[in-house]
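Protocol step 4 of 6: structure prediction from sequence.
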Amino acid sequence: MSNFYNTYMKDDILLKLGYKVKYERDKRGISQEKLSELSGVGITTVGMLERGEGNVTIKNLLKIAKVLELDLGILTDFKL
């Protein structure tokens, strides 16, 4: 993870989660649109999640994690 993550996002859990989803999505070369299509989660929800602008349901987070082939624990592994 980048220094930006460590410096600016250490206190906001939604931003941390969104950053991790975006990082993992980008690492796989998947667009937001494709992630939305494959997971069945709306494109607006994916965008809001990545920007840390709103809560996401566990159900939708599980769908996204499945598409990214990640254990949910990877996306939520950060110190509170």
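Step 5 (inspection) to follow. The chain has six helices and no strands.
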